[in-house]
Amino acid sequence: MRALGVASASVALALSVSGTALACDISEFSAEAKCDGDKGIITVTDVDPSGVPATVSVFLQNNGADLKKVGEQEVKGSREGVTITFAENWKPNAEYRIHVKAAGYVDADIKPNLTTSSTACKKEEETPPPASDTPTPSAPASTPAEETDSPTPTPSESDSTPPVSSVPSPAAGDSNLAETGANSNTGLIAGIAVGLVALGGGAVFFGLRRRGASSDR
């Protein structure tokens, strides 16, 4: 009987130690800031093999004080690990306090506090420079292709050829004789005229003499 009692006590002590080892502990929780596309998230993983229910709360810190409560969820861990997710569009280098509470087992923060990456999940779009009020001078209107590419019209035969006069032009020999007076009838006409004048003068002279002789009788 004494030996049986010693054995029972040993088993009870072993079960007690084993239960304590399997109990929920703060070291079994971890937190991480990640990106889900362009949005930020905070994940908390519980690897408690005993599966003790625990409440996880996330707080945004500012100068060592809670600025806001991001959210609160319950988790039951496992040896493989169970992860819960908090949607939080975190800023670069932001600090978060993660608190875990499991009744009768743990009531503490994950140490150290979670600090986010220096790069945001969504890149800030560059703001375009303000439009200037000064109007931009417009480029001079280009010459229409029809004007620049069209060839220079070739003058037609009727435009380039001088009009032909209907009056027949004198022959080269005639024009030269008219200018110089050679081979013309001017001398002949002048001689005839002088002869006629002389004949007329003679006729008048003889007529006057005859009239004077008749008057003397």
From TrEMBL:
Residues 1-23 form the signal peptide. The chain crosses the membrane at residues 188-208. PROSITE patterns: PROKAR_LIPOPROTEIN (PS51257). Keywords: Membrane, Signal, Transmembrane, Transmembrane helix. Residues 116-183 are annotated as: Disordered. Residues 133-145, 155-172 have a biased composition (Low complexity). NCBIfam families: LPXTG_anchor, strep_LAETG. This is LAETG motif-containing sortase-dependent surface protein. It comes from Streptomyces lanatus.
